[in-house]
TrEMBL record:
The keyword ATP-binding applies. Keywords: ATP-binding, Nucleotide-binding. The keyword Nucleotide-binding applies. Transmembrane segments: none annotated. One of its GO terms (molecular function) is ATP binding. This is Nucleotide-binding universal stress UspA family protein. Gene3D superfamilies: HUPs (3.40.50.620). Belongs to the universal stress protein A family. Residues 1-135, 145-280 form the UspA domain. It comes from Klugiella xanthotipulae. InterPro entries: Rossmann-like_a/b/a_fold (IPR014729), Universal_stress_UspA (IPR006015), UspA (IPR006016).
Length: 282
């Protein structure tokens, strides 16, 4: 079955960045693109006149964005859809038939909030497919696929996704393990040579487990391991400043908690420094 990439559009500059990124990815993967504009009905009057005007304006945006996509000159099938409803709920519904959701964000750039700017985190939490959040920045000098390593299931899934992505795109895989010393009552941190040795041993063990089998599965993949003394969010954001892609995990929880990402993934998206992909645990 042909892969289908859904790109959220709203006519803004961040949305346009996501459109270009998603189109180029679809071209590389031989996927089709479905452009979706969601009119948030929470801001609409219930009057049929207002709803009709909102739909007309949305259809105009969809047509304009499709023209922009076609002007890129890529051999990618493009369809459009206008939906009136809750953006997170509608994208979640559409994600069941998507290989990837691509959204723009105003975070990481000095521009006003876009439709999918602050909602990208919510959508990433509920989506049934991976979600890529694209900031406004230049990818020309970017290199490497960065992924955080710990002992969680979410991290394990992120590492597997990042490795496949790096191998497919010919990029090095950069695995980052970040740690901070424990806080001691009455003191800021507890430091000792024993602590440093223990942390390094824990980090090396976590790296070995997380990266096991990747060299055999991807013999041409270059893997770089980085162990840093830093809060995980800060470490990943810093490493992402020069990366082509940063991959984080989604805990894949159920019930009301599925509306929340893990704290690291949430923090990375709030301080996004490069195209960031949220991989599903399932």
């Amino acid at each position: 079955m042909t892969q289908r990439i859904i790109i959220g559009i709203d006519g803004s500059e961040p949305s346009r960045a996501a459109l270009v990124w998603g189109m180029n990815r679809a071209h590389r993967e031989g996927a089709s693109v479905h452009l979706v504009h969601v009119v948030d009905d929470s801001f609409l009057s219930e009057s049929p006149v207002f709803v009709g005007e909102a739909r007309t304006a949305a259809e105009r945006i969809a047509a304009e964005e499709k023209s922009v996509a076609e002007a890129l000159g890529l051999d990618v099938p493009i369809t459009t859809e206008v939906v009136i409803g809750n953006p997170a709920r509608e994208i979640e519904r559409l994600s069941t038939e998507a290989s990837l959701i691509v959204l723009g964000t105003h975070k990481g750039a000095k521009v006003p909030a876009a439709l999918f700017g602050t909602r990208g985190i919510k959508i990433a939490a509920v989506s049934h497919s991976p979600v890529a959040i694209i900031p406004l920045n230049d990818e020309a000098k970017r290199s490497g696929v960065v992924v955080g390593v710990d002992t969680s299931e979410a991290s394990e899934r992120a590492v597997q996704y990042a490795a496949a992505e790096a191998d497919r795109t010919g990029q090095p895989l950069i695995a980052v393990y970040a740690w901070t010393p424990p806080v001691t009552p009455g003191l800021e941190y507890l430091w000792s040579e024993q602590l440093l040795t223990s942390q390094n041993e824990t980090a090396e063990e976590a790296m070995a487990i997380a990266l096991a089998g990747l060299s055999e599965r991807y013999p041409d993949l270059v893997i770089t391991k980085k162990i840093v003394q830093s809060p995980p969010i800060a470490a990943l954001v810093a490493e992402g400043k020069n990366a082509q892609l940063l991959v984080v995990g989604n805990r894949g929880r159920s019930g009301l908690t599925r509306l929340l990402l893990g704290s690291v993934s949430h923090g990375v998206l709030n301080n996004i420094s490069c195209p960031t992909l949220v991989a599903r645990t399932e």
